[in-house]
Amino acid sequence: MTTGQLLLLFAACLLLLAGTAYVIGRRRAEGIKAGGTFMNSQPGQYGQFAATWTAVPAIVAAFVGWVATLFGAEIISGKLIIAAAVAAAVVGLVWAVRQVDPELRARLGVERVITAALITASMVSILTTLGILLSIIFESIRFFGMVDFMHFVTGTEWNPDAAPEGSEELITKGFGSLPLFAGTFLITGIAMTVALPIGLLSAIYMSEYASPSVRSVSKPLLEILAGIPTVVYGFFAAITIAPIIVAVADKVGLQASYQAALAPGLVMGIMIIPFISSLSDDVINSVPESMRDGSLALGMTKSETIRHILIPAALPGIISATLLGVSRALGETMIVVMAAGLRPNLTWNPLEAVTTVTVRIVDALTGDQAFGTPETLAAFSLGLVLFVVTLILNIVSVSMVRRFKQQYA
Amino acid sequence: MPDFSTGFTGNAAARARPYGQWLAAATLVLLAALFGWLLIDVIIRGFGSLSWEFISSAPTDAGRSGGIWPVIVASLATLAVCMAAVLPIGLGSAALLSGVFGAPRSSLGQRAVNGCRQSLDILAGVPSIVFGLFGNAFFCLYLGMGFSILAGGLTLACMVLPYFIRTAEHALRSAATTHLAGSLALGLRHSTMLRRILLPAALPGLFAGFVLALTRALAETAALLFTSGYVSRMPESLLDSGRVLSVHVYDLAMNVTGGEAQAYSTALVLIITLAVINVLVALLGHYWQQKLNGAPQ
């Protein structure tokens, strides 16, 4: 039987047993109630109690069995797990039905189980976070068992193909990550040069100058634009923008690559504009009206009020929006994978091709490399650095916004 | 005669000229032009090979000709897996975090609430490619799912879970502030109140969270490249590799020479789908709002 059929069989058994438990539990409770005894809970709640105690042991048993198979206990077949789960359900059913009694606080029992289920659900987020951290740390440790750490941090040549394969010693060439980070920062820098002024000015226009009707259209529109798939931006950068850059550079007498850092940088900037704009708009809007009124009353013009009062007051929020934008740009993948180069290049010239951290991660894992080679493991180390850097940027940004909100609350 | 205008430059008339407003308005126009260019580019180049034939047939010649039907099926299957995981986990977490089910009485519950909140803050900022790395290591290799729709859908679920929980928590909380005390005073059980009072009141917000998670998942590429894979055949089960729309765009544009036209059309299908979802949701939200406003208090 396939896994899907097994799951279906399990669900059917579970539903049948839980339904039976509900009916029996309810009948029993109704029988007692008909005898004139005062009951702690409603008959239906006794039914729910019995159904819960039938379903939960079965699910726990199935889960334990599944985890056991993961850890290599291959004797346990799918049918065996289902049989064990059904047995657990029957035991739970018999026990719960016998528990039905006027004194039993069935209602409380059911609510406790529900609370437990909610706590389990919220554990998933915690486990996912831990899982992400542990999986990339674990693979990074394996990587640094093969490749020299100092070389990874300070080396200037990234070329895994040139690294000696299968040698016993630590690899000390071919995994220098500096050019990847330089490329990432170059493209991020270009993106922020585009996104910050346009995003900020459009936020100022929307919050200070625009009529309510313009605002009511442009705000949701910006949110929809923020949802354009990044693969479309990447496509636009590679196929439309890059040839234009080459043509323009050629006119001016410069040499530009078709994978010049400028193309993904500019397009990434466009992608981040809605993000910066909507965050800055929120911040500027939460500057108290009294500060605007005071400034205007003192005879400042509107643009002077914006320059001398609003922007200084909103500065922590604007910086926080910028940091979030930078964190977005650092982790952005599809635009650079499609429009930036593959060859690591340590340069500040935006017309040359550079590669980035995310490009090399994708390249390492979509190639036909076996998992566990230094090249695939390198992707996890790069991912770890990316994770840590974006996390720090996000934490700083969130704490800045919090302080700003407290100041004007 | 002392100069009182220190700090201000130029005369009053010059100061009153709305340069600032012109500059800011020009930026908005520039912004509109940039996005207009992007969208019109995709529409013009993608419209050519868009047809019913394109939607309903299988790709041939590595995608240079034929259509995208298996890709659409794989996308729907991936989204279904993703939302099937997000809905129960997300609703449960949101119910616990918003406190509509009563504050957790045990210290374990309290710790789960705090831990969940912190984890969500972290998860929301993790780049999608890192989710891809995690999905590749955990779902594909460790749990042995291989490159499959199941692994891709679950990876997406991890990624969009914070968006859903945040919106859902907000919806439940704001519904609770208006209804919680009243329904408890009437002696309703927490579970009844949740089902009969809160859920209907919070439904528009929950729906918005669902759609946000759905559109994010639909737009994602990086997290799927090495979790659900590239195979463009019709997937036969959830354990088959399946290529979603955005990966199809990527593959045609990058790895298939002469695939640009089809890539543009697929991108157009993706954008139209997202736009239709957004417009429908906006209309539905409007309708819901009117219904709520018009209903007797």
The Cα radius of gyration of chain B reads 25 Å
Compressed to H and E, one letter per element, the order of chain A equals HHHHHHHHHHHHHH
Query: What is the helix/strand order of chain B?
Result: HHHEEHHHHHHHH
Radius of gyration of chain A: 30 Å
CATH topology of chain B: MetI-like fold
Tally the helices of chain A: what do you get?
14
Number of DSSP helices of chain B?
11
Head-to-tail CA distance between termini of chain B? 68 Å
The CATH topology of the largest domain in chain A corresponds to MetI-like fold
Report low-confidence residues of chain B grouped into runs of 5 or more.
1-6
Number of strands of chain A: 0
The low-confidence parts of chain A are none
Mean pLDDT of chain A: 86
Shape of chain A: flat
Outline the secondary-structure elements:
The complex is a heterodimer of chains A (409) and B (297).
Chain A: H1 3-34, H2 43-70, H3 78-99, H4 106-146, H5 149-154, H6 178-209, H7 212-225, H8 230-252, H9 262-285, H10 289-297, H11 302-331, H12 334-339, H13 357-366, H14 374-407
Helix pairs in contact in A: 1-2, 1-3, 2-3, 2-4, 4-14, 6-9, 6-11, 7-9, 8-9, 9-11, 10-11, 11-14, 13-14
Chain B: H1 12-16, H2 19-47, H3 52-56, E1 59-60, E2 65-66, H4 69-98, H5 107-125, H6 128-142, H7 149-185, H8 190-219, H9 222-225, H10 245-255, H11 260-294
Antiparallel strand pairs in B: 1-2
